[in-house]
Design a protein that fits this description.
39% helix; 3-stranded antiparallel β-sheet; 14% strand; binds zinc ion; 157 residues; two-stranded antiparallel ribbon; 7 helices
Length: 157
């Protein structure tokens, strides 16, 4: 009688009390990720977890990522599948290719926020200079300095 895949997974894991990660204690693949054989295939444990519990279809084009940055974790609540994160990464990659370093979300220092608030140049010039999105400059100019410094990714339409 064979054990279910779930039983095999939970035979070799521990819950990290600090992070809630389900840490795989079995063998590893690529030196970092948990590995397990299942239905004739060598799986990364976290990808298998996504298939079992997140309706992931094992599309080889889609990566399963760890929100917790713990490669041996297979807690489905810590995994990201699908296209949203891919899109974010693609945006960053395209930003780097354009030469603006994709830093629309970078944090400004309080001193930089004050400089921007006092500057007289156009939004575009300042956005390029500080490597942030126009909307960040716009928000600072509107006087939302604290918000702009702590949440530069926010939108301003
Ligand atoms: Zn985790």
């Amino acid at each position: 009688m064979t054990r279910t895949i779930e039983a095999r997974l939970f035979a070799k894991y521990r819950v990290n009390p600090g992070t809630g990660c389900w840490e795989w204690l079995g063998s590893k693949v690529s030196g970092r990720y948990g590995g397990i054989r299942y239905r004739g295939k060598q799986w990364r444990v976290h990808r298998l977890a996504a298939v079992l519990w997140l309706d992931f279809n094992d599309d080889p084009a889609i990566k399963v990522r760890h929100k917790c940055d713990n490669p041996i974790c297979f807690n489905p609540a810590h995994l990201l599948t699908g296209t949203h994160q891919d899109n974010m990464d693609d945006m960053k990659a395209r930003g780097r290719q354009r030469g603006n370093m994709g830093e629309h979300n970078r944090k400004l220092s309080p001193a930089q926020v004050q400089e921007i608030a006092a500057a007289t140049e156009s939004l575009r010039v300042l956005a390029d200079r500080y490597g942030v999105h126009n909307t960040v400059i716009h928000r600072i100019r509107k006087g939302k300095r604290a918000n702009a410094a702590s949440d530069p990714a926010g939108t301003c339409t």
